[in-house]
Write a structure and sequence with these properties.
The structure holds two protein chains of two kinds. Chain A is about 30% helix and about 25% strand. Chain A contains eight helices and nine strands. In chain A, strands 1, 2, 3, 4, 5, 6, 7, 8 and 9 form a nine-stranded mixed beta sheet that branches. Chain A is globular. In chain B, strand 1 and strand 2 form a beta hairpin. In chain B, strands 1, 2, 5, 6, 7, 8, 9, 10, 11, 14 and 15 form an eleven-stranded mixed beta sheet that branches. A two-stranded antiparallel sheet of chain B has the order 3-4. The chains are: A alpha+beta, B alpha/beta. The interface between A and B is large, with 55 and 63 residues.
């Protein structure tokens, strides 16, 4: 299983950016700033203001990734999928929604918040904005390497007719009660393509058994993979 | 491509425990939709749902716990090397409700990792598992992924486990969205007003042909094709032209090398919302042109079981192929014009080898599976 890495984009405590405009790894802990519409899209976008924080982070990371790959603009819908790994998913939105439910025994339950209590809602936002008709899903699994969605994305490409898959991670900081172990708030996506994209690809990613090779060299976690990709900018 | 068998199944639904209870209940036209007593519905637009009888929350636990026990007892031994794919949209959402009401601290179990560990541990699996959240297509996508893994030779045994419960969290949300029907839902009926929520647990053990034969399994059916696609249209409303569902069905047909004329019947999503059912009929009529096969939906009996819906419906489809009959669509008395002569409240005889199962959901997702009978 192999694919080209055609784009990288992120929203992390390191900032909002994309691979070809950076040479340092964005995967770091710290406080995550939730993106505002004008930090992501130049055009007025009424829907963006209605999104929950989880969706804003995920959607913005997808947007930066497609921009990096010179694949943001589209005329016809494209068979590109999205696979996002998340540990906490939209838990904070669930809690916020529940706070609208409790005071009047459900009378004030917010339909807008409820629409974002499925973590895959932002994948729908990304699909309609960017014309992505591929398979889209959120995955949850214990994975300290943060490479699981990349592996699933490679398999999706190998086992279907999709032309590309956006694969990455999205998480907000966890609630204080669940704050233990390492956690990297933010979103980061890479665009895997069956073919090289409009922008020169970073390189080729291959899965051999459980091993993931970038340009023939093994990478063992997401940070290492992104660092290796960004090194090709030099 | 290696053949993928559904070699063992277990389910707990509002029609009872076990596939036979489900199948007989559906053929009899029974409905598990009843007044909801789990929480007060005073402020919601509906007060009915399809709940599993006698499902009680253990002290400090979740309703998913007894569901897991019942499914594990039914399914029996599962090979330790089976890979695990779980499909649940909200997991132990009842634990979050308790925490949000200040009864206890937010427990780790509101995350999916502990749920995966619990399921993996109960079945004694080596794999810690992966949860797939693709809204109401979750278990259909999970089955597609499991089938793809086996077909590609990555593994020869996958346990797909799907479960979601009726919670005030989800019920209130669908009520706020005005998506619930105050009376028993009417899939594909001209007078449909919305959906009823349901709950279910289902476990399906997938195996390669070689593994199933080696273990002397008697499979229910073969998964012959699968496909998924996004509408790229709206987050909560389906594309009216059914474009995403058509793409998913075409991908499934292509994967299996199957022509539309070979499809004997359709198990549709049929939520009984105005837009979903209209979208499905539009998509199926476009896909099958003037040769639409008989179709049915089970949500008039089971309610909408969210992430578990697709898994339960695939199980039903396996029985339908074996017995060459599809259950009636409970609640559909006056079918939409686009479904007339093809949807019925009575069971319909079918003739053929393949059955198409589809689901669609929030986020614009659509998924299709094609089952092939005759595996036994």
């Amino acid at each position: 299983m192999r694919a080209w890495i055609n784009g990288i984009g992120w929203v992390t405590p390191a900032g909002f950016s994309q691979g070809r405009q950076s040479d340092s790894s964005p995967l770091q802990g710290g406080e995550l700033q939730i993106p505002q519409r004008k930090q992501v899209f130049a055009q007025i976008d009424k829907r963006f203001g209605r999104l929950d924080d989880f969706s804003r982070v995920g959607l913005a990371a997808v947007a930066f990734c497609l921009r990096d790959a010179d694949a943001e603009k589209w005329e016809e819908k494209r068979p590109i999928g999205v696979v996002a790994a998340s540990r906490y998913g939209c838990l904070q939105t669930d809690i916020d929604y529940y706070q609208t439910l409790i005071p009047e025994d459900g009378k004030l339950a917010s339909p807008n918040l409820f629409a974002y209590t499925l973590p895959n809602s932002f994948l729908g936002e990304a699909a309609l904005r960017f014309g992505l008709t591929g398979n889209s899903m959120i995955i949850n699994r214990h994975d300290s390497t943060r490479l699981e969605s990349i592996k699933v994305g490679l398999e999706e490409l190998a086992w279907s007719d999709q032309s590309g898959v956006l694969a990455g991670i999205v998480d907000l900081g966890p609630p204080p009660e669940l704050m233990h172990g390492d956690h990297l708030p933010g979103g980061l996506f890479i665009l895997l393509g069956r073919e090289p994209g409009n922008a020169a690809p970073y390189g080729e990613l291959e899965q051999v058994g459980e091993q993931l090779l970038f340009n023939g060299v093994e990478v063992t976690d997401l940070s290492q993979l992104i660092t290796a990709c960004l090194a090709t900018n030099i | 491509m290696k053949k993928v068998f559904i070699s063992k199944v277990a389910c707990v639904t509002p029609l009872g425990s076990g596939p036979e209870a489900l199948w007989e209940g559906l053929l009899d036209g029974r409905s598990g939709i009843a007044p909801l007593t789990r929480f007060s519905c005073e402020n919601y637009i509906s007060s009915i749902a399809a709940c599993i009888k006698d499902l009680k929350v253990p002290a400090g636990g979740s309703l998913l716990d007894p569901l897991l026990e019942r499914l594990a007892e039914q399914l029996g031994e599962v090979p330790r090397d089976a890979r695990l794919i779980v499909a649940s949209t909200k997991g132990e959402i009842d634990k979050l409700e308790v925490a949000c009401r200040g009864v206890e601290m937010l427990p780790e179990s509101v995350l999916f990792e502990p749920l995966l560990a619990k399921i993996s541990g109960r079945f004694g699996l080596l794999d810690t598992g992966l949860n797939i959240n693709a809204a109401c297509t979750s278990s259909t996508v999970a089955l597609a992924r499991g089938a793809a893994m086996i077909a590609a030779g990555q593994t020869d045994c996958v346990l797909v486990y799907a479960a979601d419960i009726v919670s005030e969290f989800v019920f209130s949300g669908f009520s706020a969205l005005q998506a619930l029907s105050g009376e028993r839902c009417k899939p594909f009926d001209t007078a449909r007003q919305g959906l009823n929520l349901g709950e279910a647990g289902v476990a399906l053990l997938l195996m390669s042909e070689e593994r199933a034969m080696r273990q002397k399994e008697t499979p229910l059916a073969t998964i012959a094709g699968w496909g998924s696609a996004n509408d790229a249209h709206h987050v909560t409303a389906p594309a009216r032209d059914g474009s995403g569902l058509i793409l998913a069905c075409r991908a499934a047909l292509k994967k299996g090398g199957i022509g539309t004329e070979q499809i004997a019947a359709i198990n549709a999503h049929g939520t009984a919302t105005i837009y979903n059912d209209a979208m499905e009929l539009t998509a199926f009529n476009a896909l099958f042109a003037d040769k639409l096969p008989p179709l049915h939906g089970v949500k008039g009996s089971l309610g909408h079981c969210l992430g578990a819906a697709g898994g339960v419906e695939v199980l039903v489809a396996g029985y339908a192929l074996q017995q060459q009959i599809i259950p009636g669509t409970v609640g559909c008395e006056q079918p939409e014009e686009a479904g007339q002569g093809r949807v019925s409240s009575a069971p319909q005889a079918i003739c053929g080898e393949y059955l198409l199962c589809t689901n669609s959901g929030f986020g614009g997702v659509n998924a299709a599976l094609i089952l092939q009978g005759g595996a036994r």
